[in-house]
Write a structure and sequence with these properties.
Order of helices and strands: EHEHEHEHEHHEHHEE
Number of domains: 1
CATH topology: Rossmann fold
Helix content: 40-55%
Number of helices: 8
CATH superfamily: NAD(P)-binding Rossmann-like Domain
Number of strands: 8
């Protein structure tokens, strides 16, 4: 069945490249109005051009571009206020933006690097949730999708800052899902797995990217989680070849 997001309003962070770019593009193609958030203006403008071209062909989808560094906490607050003033609610949140930091022994990680990873991956995610939670609760079928990573569970050597940040994100998602379990809002985490992105190339520079799925493939599997028909909440969805594996977050 073709996903129809006509009339739905979605915020997608990290929308200028990689998985976020393709989630935003595919949600717009399904009819959503996408509020695309990212630091890189050029990437946002390229996304906007793609969405406008698709709209010219099909009459579906549009975008509002928000150039924003997610380390700007008051900027995140302003985003929520602007959405409330213009639209009065929000239907979909995709909290995708994140940074890797460095792959390094934990004792060698510089304080400024650790603090940036925690600021962008954890604190900004909390601030975004705080900003849009009231708006999602005003939707008839609010959907929140928060990107995590297998690093949160594997805790591999040299990945400590990133792994810790994603473990913290999953803990927040678990709490948020439990708080909203008796409401129409559904909150889930997604582990996209190894994907052909710039972050993956930074983390594993010797890897052949052609062996990894393209971000558009992973996005196509994530976007349906925004459907009003989704009933699961408090789940972690893990990308496996040709399928999702999902499990309930422990109580």
């Amino acid at each position: 069945m073709t996903l129809d997001l006509t009339g739905r309003l979605a915020v997608v962070t990290g929308a200028s490249r990689g998985i976020g770019y393709h989630i935003a593009k595919q949600m717009a193609a399904a009819g959503a109005h996408v509020i695309a958030v990212a630091r890189t203006v050029g990437g946002l403008e390229e996304l906007d051009d793609e969405i406008k071209a698709e709209r010219a062909r099909t009459g579906k989808g549009e975008a509002t571009l928000v150039p924003l560094d997610l380390a700007d906490m008051t900027g995140i607050d302003r985003l929520g206020g602007a959405i409330h003033d213009r639209w009065g609610k929000l239907d979909i949140l995709v909290a995708n933006a994140g940074v890797l930091g460095v792959i390094s022994p934990i004792g060698h990680v510089e304080a400024k690097v650790f603090e940036k990873v925690m600021t962008v991956n954890v604190t900004s995610t909390w601030r975004l949730i705080r900003s849009v939670d009231p708006l999602l609760r005003l939707s008839d079928a609010g959907r929140a999708i928060v990107l995590s990573s297998g690093a949160a569970h594997s805790a591999r050597a040299f990945w400590a800052p990133y792994a810790a940040s994603k473990a913290a994100v999953e803990a927040m998602v678990r709490s948020w899902a439990d708080e909203t379990r008796n409401s129409p809002l559904r909150v889930n985490a997604v582990d996209p797995g190894a994907t052909r992105t710039a972050m993956r190339a930074q983390a594993v520079p010797g890897e052949n990217p052609d062996t990894l799925p393209h971000p558009s493939e992973i996005a196509a599997r994530i976007v349906p989680l925004a459907s009003p028909s989704v009933t699961e909440t408090g789940m972690i969805f893990q990308a496996k070849p040709n399928r999702w594996v999902s499990y309930q977050m422990p109580a």
